[in-house]
Each structure stands twice: as structure tokens, then as C-alpha cells.
Specification:
The protein has 164 residues and is of the alpha/beta class. The chain contains six helices and seven strands, in the order ββααβββαβαβαα. β4 and β5 form a beta hairpin. α1 crosses α5.
Length: 164
């Protein structure tokens, strides 16, 4: 029987005073915790962002951070801490949200996007009452979202380029 683990988000948000869009996930996967956002090699997040911006593949954390800042993209997650079984979004409980208002007050964010339905549901429940800003929900780049191939994901995620 798998048991719940209490997880505290250990990645700081990436943004600066020029960030115009904010992309929020739910919580880093087991493979990403202590590393960087979307660090699981099967997650398609970085491939999708590179594709929609006509950028070369992003190889390491420093390249990814620089890419985000150059494209005026802020990146963080909805959850500050929770109880979870492995990386299973469906098991998330006892959520404490990150202070998204902090990013909104320090950067000229024009649009918020969430990466998948779990992030969307969590945002609406825990963050929307604080910010009053409704996000745009994009299809999850997780490998668990097998219904969306790279072509469909890239097409859906094009909206971030139009908003930046």
C-alpha cells in the first residue's frame, strides 16, 4: 500500500520585472523535486515551449531559466505544500497554496496560464479568491496526458506566444 508523503514545494518561482505571462503547474513531480520545474525527461513542457517559440531544445536549468526570462515568462506552481502519493495529482490533499500575489505584485503579468486540469482546479479553489484573476487552462504536458500528442500540445500552447 502506497502512503501519503507531506511535500513542501522547494523550487523558487522564476520571474523578473519584465515577466508578462505566468505559467503555473500544480506541484513538481517526484523526479523534479529538488531539481527544476518539469525535470522529468518524459514531460513535454520544455519541448512544447521551445516549439511554440521556434527555439532550439533547452538542455539544462540555466538555459531554461534564461529562456523564460528572455520570453517574459514567469513560472511557478499553485501548491506550496500538500500530502501526495508519489506524483499522483489525484491523491493531492491538505493543500496550502503558494503566494501567487507576490509574483503579480512584482511583475507586470498580463495573463495567467495553468498547465492542466489539476492546476486549474487547485488554482480556482485556492488562488482565485485571493487574486481575482481567472487563468487560461492549457492541456497538461505530462506524459500521463496521452490523449494529447506533441502536435496537438504545440497547437494549443501557441496561445502563450500571442499573449506575450
Amino acid at each position: 500500500m502506497r502512503t501519503y508523503t507531506h511535500v513542501v514545494h522547494d523550487l523558487t518561482p522564476v520571474y523578473d520585472e519584465h515577466s508578462r505571462i505566468l505559467i503555473l503547474g500544480s506541484l513538481p513531480s517526484v523526479k523534479s523535486r529538488g531539481q527544476f520545474f518539469y525535470n522529468h525527461p518524459q514531460n513535454r513542457f520544455w519541448k512544447v515551449l521551445a516549439a511554440v517559440t521556434d527555439h532550439a531544445p533547452l538542455e539544462n536549468v540555466e538555459e531554461k531559466k534564461q529562456f523564460l526570462l528572455e520570453h517574459q515568462i514567469a513560472l511557478w506552481d499553485v501548491i506550496a505544500s500538500c500530502d501526495i502519493i508519489g506524483s499522483s495529482d489525484s491523491s493531492i490533499k491538505n493543500v496550502v497554496a503558494n503566494d501567487i500575489g507576490r509574483v503579480l505584485s512584482e511583475a507586470p503579468i498580463r495573463q495567467i496560464f495553468v498547465n492542466g486540469q489539476t492546476a486549474f482546479k487547485l488554482y480556482k479553489k485556492y488562488v482565485l479568491p485571493e487574486t481575482g484573476v481567472m487563468p487560461v487552462c492549457l492541456p497538461s504536458t505530462s506524459p500521463a496526458n496521452a490523449a494529447w500528442n506533441m502536435e496537438k500540445l504545440t497547437e494549443a500552447w501557441q496561445v502563450i506566444v500571442r499573449e506575450s
